[in-house]
Each structure stands twice: as structure tokens, then as C-alpha cells.
Amino acid sequence: MNIAFIGGGNMSFALIGGLLRQGYSPGRIRVVEIDAGRRERIRTELGVASTAELAEGVAGSDVVLLAVKPQQLAPVARALAPLLERHLVVSIAAGIRAMDIGRWLGGYERVVRAMPNTPALVQAGVTGLYALAGVDAEQRHAAETILGAVGSVLWCQSEELLDAVTAVSGSGPAYVFYFMEALQAAGQTLGLDADQARQLTLDTFLGAARLASHGGDDAATLRARVTSRGGTTERAIQALDDGKVREAILHAARAASLRSRELGDQLGEP
């Protein structure tokens, strides 16, 4: 499988790095990038060929991965359309629906839309995937292989569910950082210095996530095990409930999902 990356930004860099770490040959990867500095970085740090020319980059490829800014995707897709044969086209451009990409490609249906999140930059991401009807089983596997190089993947049966993926995992790291920021500030308020509060916060999140991922118990069960009757955690959880934190999180996720739909409408207009 030969892969052409259109756009050489951070996410492309992460995906290529993940593939190479899994033993993928750099000779099977090519990057199209208009910025000369990024092209040089790709060549020197990844050992992968790069070019500024779309036709040259796509020639001989089986998969074309679109990793340009959402506002750039329509003109890039239109320029790409005459170069496609039986290619799989994978887009990681945020907010743009697969059907709109297919339309810009001239009615092309071998399109997968991917919604990765930023922990992919450290090979700890999760990606939601949705495929148009023209994508066959082999191409679905190819998409899984590429995005799976930086974390886990899951398929959505309808594209509307990618709005939920965006709300939960796409925006989710920001929610986690928000809570970490608050917990670290709380530690300092209670007398810890900044380094101590940061270490305790980071290691607590890492440990809790590892504990949750290693067992079959859900988050509610794990929380209950920590929450002894009459203890400190029970008092803290009660304070969170009194502050309607759960409701605020639900409201935030709904707001993010709605905004994802709005962006899909706006960005799909050209």
C-alpha cells in the first residue's frame, strides 16, 4: 500500500511516524507540502519523500490522505479529482463531511472521513471513522491501519455520529486539561507548590485512566470503590453534584456536537 499525504503538518507527521515505528517502509510514503521548510523536515527527520506538486505526490499511490486545513480542502479536492482512479481517499480535515468531499471530487465514493484527536501526536489517540458506500473491506482495513498507527479506531455506521465523536473524543482532551488545570490550582490553594500539584495531578490522571482501561468495570463502579461512606471522597463528590458538574459536562458535549454539525454545514457549502 503506497500512501500519499496531502499536507505535512503535525498530524501527518504523527501518522507517518507511527507507521514507520510499526515497520512501514518509508519508500511507500510520499508527502505533498507547499511549505519548503516542512518538506525538508519531512525528508530529514522521517526519511520520506516530499514534493510541492500534487500530481507527483499522488502518482503510484493507493491511498490519498487529506491533511490540509478545512478551508483549503475544497480546492485541493477539486485539483485531486482528475488524478483519482481506484484510490482510497481519507480525510482528517475537521468538520467536513464525507459526502461533501465526494462531491468536490466529482461524485467519488471511495472516501473515508476520520476524526482523530490530539493525543495521536504521542501515539495515544482515538479516531472515529466513517466510510461512504464505495469503500470496500480492503480499503476499510487500509484506513484502520493508517489511523491505528497512532492509537485506537472505531467505525461509525452513520456520519452524524461523528459529531458525537467530535464532542466526546475530539474535544475531550480539552475537557480533561480543563479539569487538570482546576485540580492543579486546587492543590496550590491547599498549600502544595506548583511542581507538587502538577505531579500529583498528572500521575493521578495517568493512573486512573490506566486502571479504567485494564479492567472490565465501568467508571461508575470504579468511582464507587474510591468513595467510602462518610469519607473525604464522598464529601468531594457531593460538592461536585451540588455544583451540577455532571450536568455541565453533558451540556458542554451537546454544545460541541451542535457546533460540529454547524461547521459541517458551513464548510460544506463551497
List the helices and strands and how they pair.
Elements lengths: L2 E4 L3 H12 L7 E4 L3 H11 L2 E3 L2 H5 L4 E4 L3 H11 L7 E4 L6 H7 L6 E5 L9 E7 L5 H11 L3 E5 L5 H10 L1 H18 L4 H21 L4 H8 L5 H11 L2 H23 L3
Parallel strand pairs: 1-2, 1-4, 2-3, 4-5, 5-6, 7-8
Antiparallel strand pairs: 6-7
Describe this protein's structure.
The protein is an alpha/beta fold and 270 residues long. It has two domains: 163 residues, Rossmann fold (3-Layer(aba) Sandwich), CATH 3.40.50.720; 90 residues, Orthogonal Bundle (ProC C-terminal domain-like fold). The protein is 55% helix and 13% strand. The protein is built from twelve helices and eight strands. An eight-stranded mixed β-sheet has the order 3-2-1-4-5-6-7-8, sandwiched between helices. α7 crosses α12 and α8 packs across α9. The chain is elongated. The two termini are 32 Å apart. The mean pLDDT is 96.
